Amino acid sequence: MIETAGGRQEPVISIRNLEMSYGSKPILQGIDLDVYQGQIIGYIGPNGAGKSTTVKIMLGLVEGHQGEVKIFGRDISDGDIEYKRRIGYVPEVAELYDSLTAQEYLVFIGELYGLPQRKADHKARRLMAKFGLEEVYFDRISSYSKGMRQKVLLISSLLHNPDILFLDEPLSGLDANSVMIVKEILAALAAEGKTIFYSSHIMDVVEKISSRILLLNGGRIVADGSFEELREQSHERSLEQIFNDLTGFHEYKDVASSFVSIVREV
Amino acid sequence: MGSVKWLQILDPLRGLFERSGVDYPMMRRILEMKLLMDGRRVPTLIQKSSKTADPDNQSNQFIKSLWIYVVISVVLVPFVVMKTNYMFQMSLVFGILMFMITTSMISDFSSVMLDVRDRNILFSKPVQRRTISMAKLLHVLIYLLLLTGSLTVVPLVVGLFRHGVLFFLLFLVEVILMDFFIVVLTAVLYWLVLRFFDGEKLKDIINYVQIGLTIVMTVGYQFISRLFNFVDLKVAFRPQWWEIFIFPAWFASPFEWLLGEGKSPLIVIFSVLSVVGPLVAWWVYSLLMPSFERNLQKLASHHGRGKSGGFRLQEGLGKLFCRGKLERLFFRFSWDMMGRERDFKLKVYPQLGFSIIFPFIFMFNTLRSEGGFAAMRTGKGFLFLYFCALMIPSIIMMLKYSGNYKGAWIYQTAPLTDTAPVYKGALKAMVVRLFAPVFLLQAVIFLIIFGARIVPDLVVILLGVLLYVVVSFMALEKGLPFSQPFQGSQSGSGFVIFGLLVLLGVFAGAHFGFTFLPYGEYLYMLLLLVLNLLAWKLAFRELPAS
């Protein structure tokens, strides 16, 4: 099912029987997954399915998981955090230190990844310019619009030229033209052999850019394959329909019509 | 670009940090960024001067506010100076210090200890946890040292000259131990709250501490001068076993042990505790730290466990005081906003605190000057109750501000033809929610002090205040409730506010005058009733749609 450029190669990410719960509430109930170089993984699922949790475990942001998570062939719980140097991360909520200027923030992040200050600055400034943000490079992020913040986050995740990218809803707030640019960027990065782990609720985008789609539901992977493969399996036409189908959600029409009937009451 | 030069003073310690497994350059960089961000934040105590603050001003507002702490520390001087009983005086000194430092820690540095962004931004980077924790710890310690330094520099110097070198050194050491203790105490407090509640509750608690701090500071000023009367006080002090639970007593007892006469076993135990306590606390802290970090995640999560159907009280009161659906609606809306918005509470609740305290401060002043309690009871001291309305103009002014002012687009998009009910509802909600509880409480206390004879006067005062509310509303610049940012506040309405304060004096003066007439109170009451009806009609006669 999985075909990669290099044929039979070592997985970049390898997850075995991953379980996680918050208190008594189970979030992940046994995830098995191998991700190879150059894949763009669309990681989708309903709210609360465990998408963000999986990503956060891989980044070491949440503790207490069971099972094995290997990145670049090393178990991440062995205490060595060097693997993070090769990872870029865009979190779901646009969390950044927004009282800093874009320059201060980006250079700081670059330095956290071990870049020299001057190099980080030079790189960040040119990347900002490519997004049309050179004029606000020295302005505080708190004055930015949602789309501008998202661009800063994207840049901050790429400054150190990572091998794996974890993007949680990376297109939120971007206008259509910027979305085009980012999609191109992602495709080009993947072609260069970078692995992109992409979660989103916007099915059209996932459908178009992912080379492999993982559907998570109730803490389990319920579908895994390219869009074409999923379409063949489920006999549905769009990813949206596949999503509805596999998450067992068929009553959207009923919900919508009863919603509208409540709206009609005045 | 963001660099903090004076952090170089840490450089000589580099080896020490690196030996404990900390990536020193990285830690300094994180610390530098944190300090840079703090420079762009405004602490609780000097919010009022923020109107002139230049948004690009890089210097740290907190450091500028340190002189306030130096001024406040003068309170401690009389206790340091007096030579009555070390245990007594130093307990008070450490009590005040602990209170000041703990509350300032909670109100101004909670954002340092509880920055949830750290998690996503820093933890996902190839930086050791130990480095991040050390940066965080140093960050807190820098502030704590500055704060403690400015609070104790004057008392320390005074102590050196009054009691000698040993006292000075002892004081210094105990203050440092106390600081350690406080850091742990604050962290444990956060830990406990986060363990049992969620982040919203913690934010509420921080909010109330901020409010409390503001009140105590302002009221504290009133008492500074009077404190000096205590200098010659003679106190016989015997240590009791239960004082083991009063932490300041720990830190005071070494003075008694080494410098004073008290050599009882309890004093020795307390003295030992003042050293062992902070160390043990620190150890417990290091044990709790992982659990603390885990609970910190709760801060970011939103568990919407709000009380359901808590509409009844506002609903009932709205029906009671408001006519018209729209007015009732905005009564409820304003009621909820006043209770929920932390920024609003932080600005307004301290003023409410003053309203509670001021009538009594003035009453006690007369108590000291004019022959005692009995004389006051039969006099006209109840007129001091007017002081509880002092804050009304500024609260009315505050009603138009909100931290979430951007939500005010609803006024534009909702089909509101007349904004009069909006203002009226908000004003009534202010009176019922904020003023009424204060007034009721004070009315009861005044009734106990002055007896039932003042009932008509209380009615007169209430009517007077209600009239005052409308007049203030008319005089002040109007803005739809909760529709403007706080930054713009306190601009140019100073004169109006001053005029309104004078007006309150006129109300009280008139009341005083009428009491000399036969049935004067009732006459005044009638007059106020008519004026009230007129004014409340007039004020809301025509207000343009926004």
Which helices and strands appear, and what pairs or packs with what?
The complex is a heterodimer of chains A (266) and B (546).
Chain A: E1 13-22, E2 25-35, E3 40-44, H1 51-59, E4 66-71, E5 74-75, E6 87-90, H2 102-112, H3 117-130, H4 146-158, E7 164-168, H5 176-191, E8 195-199, H6 203-209, E9 212-217, E10 220-225, H7 227-234, H8 239-246, H9 252-264
Parallel strand pairs in A: 3-8, 3-9, 6-7, 7-8
Antiparallel strand pairs in A: 1-2, 1-4, 4-5, 9-10
Helix pairs in contact in A: 2-3, 7-8
Chain B: H1 14-19, H2 24-38, H3 61-72, H4 77-81, H5 86-113, H6 117-123, H7 129-163, H8 165-196, H9 199-227, H10 247-258, H11 265-300, H12 312-321, H13 325-340, H14 342-369, H15 372-378, H16 392-398, H17 409-413, H18 420-450, H19 455-475, H20 494-514, H21 520-539
Helix pairs in contact in B: 2-7, 3-7, 5-7, 5-8, 5-9, 5-10, 7-8, 8-10, 8-11, 9-14, 10-11, 12-13, 13-18, 14-18, 16-19, 18-19, 19-20, 19-21, 20-21
Keywords (chain B): Membrane, Transmembrane, Transmembrane helix
Protein name (chain B): ABC transporter permease
Organism (chain B): Paenibacillus cookii
Structure explained in plain terms:
Chain A: One of its GO terms (molecular function) is ATP binding. The complex is a heterodimer of chains A (266) and B (546). By secondary structure, chain A is an alpha/beta fold. Chain A has helices at 51-59, 102-112, 117-130, 146-158, 176-191, 203-209, 227-234, 239-246, 252-264; strands at residues 13-22, 25-35, 40-44, 66-71, 74-75, 87-90, 164-168, 195-199, 212-217, 220-225. In chain A, a hairpin with a 2-residue loop joins strand 1 (13-22) and strand 2. Chain A is globular, with a radius of gyration of 20 Å. In chain A, 39% of the residues are buried. In chain B, 70% of the residues lie in helices and 0% in strands. In chain B, helix 5 (86-113) runs antiparallel to helix 7 (129-163), helix 8 packs parallel to helix 11 (265-300) and helix 20 (494-514) packs antiparallel against helix 21. Chain B has 21 helices and no strands. Chains A and B meet through helix 2 of A and helix 2 and helix 6 of B.
